[in-house]
Amino acid sequence: MRRLAFLLRPAWLALFVVVIAFAYLCFTVLAPWQLGKNTKTSRENDQISNSLTADPVQLTTILPHQDSSAPDAQWRRVTATGHYLPNAQALARLRVVDGDPAFEVLTPFAVDGGPVVLVDRGYVRPVQGSGVPTIAPAPQESVTITARLRDSEPVVQGKDPFRQDGVQQVYSISTTQVSAVMGMPLAGSYLQLVDGQPGGLGVIALPHLDAGPFLSYGIQWIAFGIIAPILVGYFVYAEIGQRRREKAATPDAAGGPLTTEEKLADRYGRRR
User: Fold this and answer.
1) What is the pLDDT of residues 213-271, one digit of tens each?
2) d(CA 195, CA 238)
3) What whole-number distance in Å separates Cα of residue 102 and Cα of residue 100?
4) Helix boundaries (H) for the chain
5) pTM of the predicted model, to two decimals?
């Protein structure tokens, strides 16, 4: 037991605590975080790929009611007939399109025989830094549009909606938040117009089908969680072996281990 007493020293105890905490975080937080992002990205890539070949369907077959949402049909192309409600328009700010800042223009659309759904008409570029440019109005007559279903985005915490340049502005396309800002009910999913549609502005391209590095990052965190305790075990084993070798190499006259003072005296030739 005396040989292992050094493991109870504060420095070693602190090392054990840090390694255990690190391994715990690797398995419960860091690896699941990256693997979850990989699962989400892979699912979205599959939805985009499927949408490229699937024919458009009527919006009301997927969003039949005002409180409907369609997370499993994201990116699916749909068609809807109805009319825009341009008086309730809002802008999603701090967006990036093709590497440059942009506003995305959000206008509610009343579907004939269906819900009121939020439509992302596309993007416009800011002027003079973050100023709102002149935006072409949406048509007021009845039109038929083709768009892609999109999931509602989470609300950006600490960034409240505000009104500037005569337009309501938000930091995310959250249908719940935009509904509250506009003062009207909106379906749980929103629409993103494809090219050549009535009321369309700058077209937002589909994301690249890239799985990203999330799977490899997740595997790396798992490996780190396994390797860290192994390394500590190796250091403990090496320390015990070193102490045994020192004891065997420098016994005192009584056959016991030398004290620290005796070791120093012996090293400098002053031991009697």
Assistant:
1) 777 888 888 888 888 888 888 877 777 777 777 777 765 545 555 565 555 555 555 54
2) 67
3) 6
4) 10-25, 31-53, 175-182, 214-249, 260-267
5) 0.66
